[in-house]
């Protein structure tokens, strides 16, 4: 086995007390193995599935299939036709907390949306009256719009603004705000990809500070009794549990919600309800997820769609062809 860096060794010791677990975690990053691909059905599943599938987990929604190792769903004609969206099964785990949210749901706001997987999941799971997908990085907008358009996600608006703009102009309006936070991307290593400097304390602290800023701005949008989901694809506690603990100290009107079907994945690094998978679990490269609820009482504020300055909109129901630029 390749020798792990000192920073990776330190992280493994902070995450796991058991030396065997430390070794398995390190091995999963140094000698990455392929994971089972997953697909999210945007349209109804066909009676005869085009791929062989694994047995579902207890938290896996019926509109998601985990395929056998080696399947290439992105090359299937149904993918291009928008029947399904390909995503990492770690993303399914992180987004599975949304299945706890009661319907009906008015507005869903995805703060860090590109390439669109969590937006598609929320749309399919909750069928909101409106989905707003925001991406602050301009060069990532094309992929987001392409995926939402291909999958005919509607009614949907794509916007391109910093989270602080929405905090100012859209207070207390959203039934659900999702923050799939930008992070150091340590789980990329488990996929065999590169993530230079991802274990360095400077990079981790910089990332955690950005995450705190985004989650604080995002909290301003959450309507009374509404929900806020915080997710990452990294391992360091500074970007996960510690961000959540900081958030609850600054926004005491929020509380973490227990997601009973994820009890076995409860993080041992915090007393709040938050959940993790690691690459050695073989379900995906890794994810952290937590569901918060705004305990305040009141009515949601109205949203002025004209003031959003959207870059793309699909405002009809599924099957309609009318999409437009603003």
From TrEMBL:
PROSITE patterns named among the record's database cross-references: SAM_MT_RSMB_NOP (PS51686)
Keyword entries, A-Z: Methyltransferase, RNA-binding, S-adenosyl-L-methionine, Transferase
Binding site for S-adenosyl-L-methionine: 135, 162, 180
Spans traversing the lipid bilayer: none
Record's protein name: RsmB/NOP family class I SAM-dependent RNA methyltransferase
PANTHER family per record: 28S RRNA (CYTOSINE(4447)-C(5))-METHYLTRANSFERASE-RELATED, NOP2 YEAST -RELATED NOL1/NOP2/FMU SUN DOMAIN-CONTAINING
Family: Belongs to the class I-like SAM-binding methyltransferase superfamily. RsmB/NOP family.
Glycosyltransferase as UniProt keyword: no
Domain SAM-dependent MTase RsmB/NOP-type: 1-295
EC number of this enzyme: 2.1.1.-
GO molecular function list: methyltransferase activity
Active site: 233 (nucleophile)
Enzyme class: transferase
